[in-house]
Design a protein that fits this description.
Strand order of the largest sheet: 4-1-2-3-7-6-5
Order of helices and strands: HEEEEEEEH
Number of strands: 7
Radius of gyration: 24 Å
Number of helices: 2
Helix content: 25-40%
Distance between the termini: 32 Å
């Protein structure tokens, strides 16, 4: 069970680090360009992510009216500098349910259907994504710095300094 937990933590750390490294250029790009990615599996439901002005908006919407079906399941749109991609919560007006430190909840009727969404500042996303790699680094450094412990498994070698009884590793003299 301990091995599975360690493997799962390492997997989460790797995914988190990859997403963090992807989000840094996205954050920088968001101040120059606006990007939108839409996913429309049917003409009554859709999901979209918007990136602009240092933030990300994730939306889920349902249409109460019959909207013409799109030919593309996925659609990516990029807006050049000076365009009309002002995507943070002031544009949603009365649909904003709550705001705090750049985060916001969106819920409301837009005339065609209902929208649920979340506004996230890139900085908050990057801080959240940096937590698992920092925890991994802390654990790694702590394990390596423990004096009198096995370098491989962290077992206390004070009683048997010549060989680790847990994994069989012969410790290096420091």
């Amino acid at each position: 069970m301990k091995r599975l937990r360690k493997w799962l933590f390492n997997l989460i750390t790797a995914l988190s680090l990859a997403l963090f490294l992807i989000s840094v250029p996205g954050w920088i790009r968001s101040y120059q360009y606006g990007d939108a990615l839409d996913f429309n599996p049917s003409h009554h439901f859709g999901v979209a992510t918007w990136s602009s002005s240092g933030g990300v908006v994730v939306e889920i919407w349902t249409y109460s009216l019959s909207v013409p079906e799109t030919k593309n399941l996925f659609r990516w749109t990029a807006q050049t500098p000076g365009g009309s991609f002002k995507l943070m919560y002031p544009d949603y007006g009365p649909m904003v349910a709550g705001k705090f430190l750049g985060f916001a909840l969106i819920s409301g009727d837009n005339g065609e259907g209902h929208i649920w969404g979340l506004v996230l500042p890139y900085v908050g996303v990057m801080i959240f994504l940096a937590i698992p790699p920092l925890l991994w680094l802390y654990r790694y450094r702590r394990r390596k710095l423990l004096v009198g412990c096995c370098d491989q498994c962290g077992y206390d070698l004070r009683a048997t300094p010549d060989r680790c009884p847990e994994c069989g590793t012969i410790p290096q003299t420091k």
